[in-house]
Amino acid sequence: MSAFETFLSAREIWEVPLAASIVAGALLGALGVYVVLRRTVFVSAALTQVSTLGLVLTLLVEERVHIETEHATEQLAVAILFSVAGALVLGALRPRRLPAEATVGAAWVTASALVVLGVSQLVHAAHDLGGMVFGNAVAVPAGDLAVIVLVAAVCTAVHLVFAKELAFASFDPETAQALGLKVKLWDAVLFLTIGLAIPVTARALGALPVFAFLTLPAAAALLLKVGFRPAFAVAAGLGILAAGGGYVLSWIWEIPTGATMVALAALFLVPGALLRRGGG
């Protein structure tokens, strides 16, 4: 039996994780268009670390008070709380004494250091963090898939219904402000959806793949010069291909899932780069 036939025969094992990966890839790919165009890539990197920090702190508390960790609802809730709070704070930054990039960088470095310190204090749950950082999409509970689908539906609905407001506030804030649009409110809505998506999808893909999917599919779509609105669909499609294809290839070749997804997503940059180099 070939590796692919073995994969097909194990459908009961991979169908839920594969579905979760595909939905997560589509959601992050579409959101990434705003991340790339607004040049807030470092914000998404910081949020992945802040979200992971929330998880680590939850695990530390659970170990210290001897709470069972099989049910991860509390862990996810705290990770979402940290990520959403971080998204609202970082998304509202405006240059004052320090450039916004410096503050975001400080948040990323600080969160990363605290994650390392927290993990060093974990006794039983430290091995779980590897999946959160590098991706452990091989085994995703059905409950996690339901949460990912729900969050994806909410974020998609928000971006479809308020597409004009989000785009206007993001790319022409001065004019939007002059016309009475509450720019800070719509910035908060945008970063709220990003902050909500990160911890939920990180449970399936891992923090590193989540950061990659918030940048690579969107960058590849924009390099193809497909236009602003089509870029969301193209980026979502590339996210699906990278997440789904990476999952299948990692299973067949027996290599790390998250890293395979990221490598495949990076390959999608090649056509756009060649087109740009050729003057297309």
CATH C-level class is Mainly Alpha
Largest sheet: none
The proportion of residues in beta strands is: under 5%
Distance between the termini: 45 Å
What's the CATH H-level superfamily name? ABC transporter involved in vitamin B12 uptake, BtuC
What is the mean pLDDT? Answer: 85
Structural class: mainly alpha
String of helices and strands: HHHHHHHHHHHHHHH
Question: What integer value in Å does the Rg equal?
Answer: 19 Å
CATH architecture assignment name: Orthogonal Bundle
- Give the proportion of residues in helices: over 70%
How many β-strand stretches? 0
The low-confidence parts are: none
Question: What descriptive keywords fit this protein?
Answer:
280 residues; ABC transporter involved in vitamin B12 uptake, BtuC; 15 helices; mainly alpha
Give a topology summary:
Layout: H1 3-9, H2 11-37, H3 41-64, H4 73-91, H5 100-121, H6 126-134, H7 142-161, H8 163-171, H9 173-178, H10 183-205, H11 207-213, H12 216-223, H13 228-253, H14 257-267, H15 269-277
Description:
The chain starts with a helix and ends with a helix. It has a single domain, classed as ABC transporter involved in vitamin B12 uptake, BtuC, CATH 1.10.3470.10. The chain has 280 residues and is mainly alpha-helical. The protein contains 15 helices and no strands. Helix 2 runs parallel beside helix 7 and helix 2 crosses helix 12.
